[in-house]
Amino acid sequence: MATSNEPETDPLVVEQADGVRTLTMNRPAVKNALDSAQWRRLAAALDDAEHDTSVRAVVLTGAHGVFSSGGELGADGPQHPLDRMRIISATAIALHEFPKPTIAKVPGPAIGGGWNLALCCDLVICSSNATFAQVFPRRGLSIDVGGSWLLPRLIGMQKAKLLTMTGDVLDAAEVERLGLATQVVEPEDLDAVVDSLAGRLAAGPPAALSLTKSLLHRAAGADFAGSLEAEAVAQAVNFAGEDIDNGYRAFKSRTAPSFTGRWRFDESR
């Protein structure tokens, strides 16, 4: 991958190739735990990726064989705990609502808030040797980084209570069985599998994928009729873009489509 000008020792390494922006948490001394500064770095990187039209998909991962051990307990930051938590919450919202496809690449442990950070992504691809735990009760804490909202919707209330009240450590196979991992692969295959999937997403129609993501999120709190109306509005937006023609031509010619995300009536081009 092409790298940024930042040195590899940076706590958050940013790389990009072929429309895929990769954000790598890189704090080996604390197993990629996030202090207030790191949460802010991640939020700023997401904001930059959102507004950069060359970015078509984002991969979030961790260096040194670890995804993240969660929030760094005792780290410096705002004096009041509520202010510290609001920094974390703002970053979780930015990732969950990010308007482009996101993949969490989990090479190893994803613990506490680190696991919930991965669940804020659209897809979670993990190594077979990765481990997971909602470790909060072992630290005298309650769940955070959106876990109270995400887990019941993904696995149901009882399973969510079991994970968050025991803090038990789960292996990758169990996490996949519960539906909390999109795919589990062997460690040596992780990079290739994620690169392939991210490339497919980056090559997709950007406006349509963004609208689909928004529709799925909104449907969780909408009725059937409301969801259908939102789908109709989204399709109307798609019909005003170039990619529907690109897709149709590719279908007719049996070739791979080349999507641009351009507005059909943009006279500035």
Question: How does the SSE layout of this entry go?
Answer:
Blueprint: E1 2-3, E2 12-17, E3 20-25, H1 36-51, E4 57-62, H2 81-96, E5 102-106, E6 110-111, H3 113-119, E7 123-127, E8 131-133, H4 147-155, H5 157-166, E9 169-171, H6 172-178, E10 183-185, H7 190-202, H8 206-219, H9 224-239, H10 243-253
Parallel strand pairs: 3-4, 4-5, 5-7, 6-8, 7-10
Antiparallel strand pairs: 1-2, 2-3, 8-9
Helix pairs in contact: 1-2, 4-5, 8-9
Give an overview in words:
It is a single chain. The chain is of the alpha/beta class. Helix content is 44%, strand content 15%. The protein contains 10 helices and 10 strands. The strands form 2 sheets. Strands 1-2-3-4-5-7-10 form a 7-stranded mixed β-sheet, with helices on both faces. Strands 6-8-9 form a 3-stranded mixed β-sheet. Strand 3 (20-25), helix 1 and strand 4 form a beta-alpha-beta unit. The longest helix is centred in the first third of the chain and has 16 residues, at 36-51. The radius of gyration is 19 Å and the shape is globular.
The SS-based structural class is alpha/beta
Strand order, main sheet: write it out: 1-2-3-4-5-7-10
* Helical content band: 40-55%
* Unreliably modeled segments: 1-7
Average of per-residue pLDDT values? 89
Number of helices: 10
**Biggest beta-sheet profile:** 7 strands, mixed
Total number of β-strand segments? 10
Percent of sequence in beta strands: 15-25%
For the termini, the CA-CA separation is 30 Å
H-E order: EEEHEHEEHEEHHEHEHHHH
Rg, Cα atoms, Å:
19 Å
> Which outline best applies?
globular
Could you write a compact summary of the structure shown?
The protein has 269 residues and is of the alpha/beta class. 44% of the residues lie in helices and 15% in strands. The chain has 10 helices and 10 strands.
